[in-house]
Amino acid sequence: MKRYVPVLVPLALALPSAAPAMQGPAKSVDKDQVVCKRESVIGSRVQKRRICLTRAEWAKLEIGTRDGMADYLQKSTSGAGRQ
Fold first, then answer.
1. Which of 6, 7, 65, 81 has its Cα between 20 and 30 A from that of 45?
2. pLDDT tens across the length of the chain (83 residues)
């Protein structure tokens, strides 16, 4: 279980919050628009990689990461798998 923490925590922290930003009237968002983000490569202080996904794919990744972290935390605090 501990081997997933180094992978999931940076992903969870890198994703934007689900709380909507305080803005004016809601704008129409194109879910098929491609958005590129730069991510640090684990193990390197300098190297970055560019990841391009659609807004729908970013949303799906964020939900999957959040659910995975919630499952991991629940299992680690409930004592499941301990002997």
1. 65
2. 455 545 555 555 555 554 455 556 667 889 999 999 999 999 999 999 999 999 999 999 999 999 999 999 999 887 655 55
